[in-house]
Amino acid sequence: MNLALSETQQLVRDAVRDYLAREVSFDRVREVERSGGFDRELWRDLQRQDWMGLPFPQDIGGSGGSCVDLAVLIEELSKRAVIIPLVETMVSALTIHRFGAGAAARELVRDAAAGDAVVTPAIFEASDRFDDVAMAVGADGRLRGEKYFVTYGQNATHHLVAASADGSVGLFLADAEDPGVKCAPLPSIGRIPQALVRYDGAEATPVAGAEAYRYLVRLGRALAAIQCLGCAQQALDMTTDYVRGRVQFGQPIGAFQAVRHHCANMAMMVEAARFLAYEAVWSMDNGVATDAQVAVAKACASRTVTEVTMMAHQLHGGIGIVEEYDLHFFSLRGKERALAWGSAEECLAIVAGSVDEAEEWLPMRQAAGASAGLS
Amino acid sequence: MTREAGDAAPAGGRMESTYRMSPILRFGGGTNEVQRDIIAQRGLGLPR
Q1: What is the phi/psi pair of residue A163, to 5°?
Q2: How far is A255 from chain B (nearest CA, A)?
Q3: Mean pLDDT of chain A
Q4: Contact across the interface for A244 and B35, Cβ inside 8 Å
Q5: Which of A151, A134, A28 is nearest to A85 (CA)?
Q6: How many cross-chain Cβ pairs, A to B, lie less than 8 Å apart?
Q7: Which of A28, A160, A3, A146 is nearest to A88 (CA)?
Q8: In this predicted structure, what is the pLDDT of residue A164?
Q9: A213-224 pLDDT, tens per residue?
Q10: What is the structure's pLDDT at A357?
């Protein structure tokens, strides 16, 4: 199985990396954190360069790329700790594009692919579980109830609300400007805007059903694994740079075996998370992903980012806990992303629940091995 | 962990045998520590 990035994907990576190094400083990220919003300047730049259209077909204004192409972009953005609702908008719009019906759905996908709409999924209720969506759409077609941890809820133009109708969970579109949508900020460790949203008779447009909801969670989980990976990779890179340069007892500390072996362990975890996360996204693109496979990738990425950032702080010593140093961006974002779209524990429960179906996803991996590339 | 294959040995004693075999795999082909040194030096470019 060839997991090397294609030439186009390398171009995406290099272009975004150069742009971020040139334009987005960590001091700017600090300012955005303090503002409580997202980096609108970055959003406009990405919009001008047509990055939001990356995974959409050309006939709706996209550039005809894949989710793996999008993942490459997301990994680079995560390595800069930027605060923009890209994953939320892409996951919502890709789900609507695939399953959605109706004029409102089509229009929204076009707007999202052009960067004109910011869409975020609203899933969790008080129980904080993906399989416990109690909010029901009223007979009048309106939403009533509360959703927790709606990422960028207060900044979005639309919410894609999971609610039950006719006994199963479906996806409903709510306009964030609707007077029946009320957002309260929910400050969190990741310093990414989160909201507690109260829907008080907000108008809800049905866009897709239960299958779409399951796809939404899978795609969100796979891309959140990529975000964890980006944070872990950046923490590892910063640490290896640091231990090469930091001299103590007459030599760089990276020459001490106790330090080297920690770095090697971090590299092994990052490598495993990388392959599983990209494989999960590739499988989404190719229609062969299973719940268990994506859960394996997210569980690994969640554990990796938590352990790698922790060890990065340890190897940095005192400087590693200073707010002016940039390492904490990746531990805090990483911790938040490790929990987002299903924690390691939730994902492992999914894997455990499907061990007797292991046959279902193992042959798929063999089949995937026959065809090359991440294209 | 019964040694002899028989009714009392799960999987016909294969559990016991693989368990005894496993330490060698931590050394064969270079110890785990040697592998970590290689990762640090060749992969991450750390000084020796």
Answers
A1: -150, 155
A2: 5
A3: 93
A4: no
A5: A151
A6: 44
A7: A160
A8: 93
A9: 999 999 999 999
A10: 67
Q: What does the pLDDT look like over A283-321, one tens digit per residue? A: 999 999 999 999 999 999 999 999 999 999 999 999 998
Query: What's the distance, Cα to Cα, between the start and end of chain A in Å?
Result: 12
ipTM of the complex model: 0.81
Q: How confident is the model at residue A102 (pLDDT cuts 50, 70, 90)?
A: confident
For residue A123, pLDDT beyond 60:
yes
Convert the pLDDT of each residue in A64-89 to its tens digit: 999 999 999 999 999 999 999 999 99
- What is the residue-wise DSSP string for A194-242? EEEEEEEEEE-EEEE-HHHHHHHHHHHHHHHHHHHHHHHHHHHHHHHHH
Per 3-state DSSP, what percentage of chain A is helix, strand, and coil (rounded to 5)? 60, 15, 25
| Predicted pLDDT of residue A374 | 45
B35 in contact with A, Cβ within 8 Å: yes
B37/A257 touch (CB, cutoff 8 Å), yes or no: yes
Min distance B42 CA to chain A CA atoms (Å)? 10
Token reading at A40: 């609108």
| Chain centre distance of CA A248 | 39
Which residue, A3, A11, A114, A120, is CA-closest to A63? A114
Residues of chain B numbered 15-34 and touching chain A (CB < 8 Å) = 33
Question: Does B47 contact A252 at a Cβ distance shorter than 8 Å?
Answer: yes
As a whole number of angstroms, the distance between CA A265 and CA A363 comes to 30
Tell me the pairing of strands A181-185 and A194-203.
antiparallel
Q: Is residue A252 within a helix (H) or strand (E), and if so which, with residue range?
A: strand A251-252
Cα–Cα–Cα angle for A114, A107, A212, nearest 5°?
100
CB A125 within 8 A of CB A162: no
Of residues B43, B46, B48, nearest to A243 (C-beta): B46
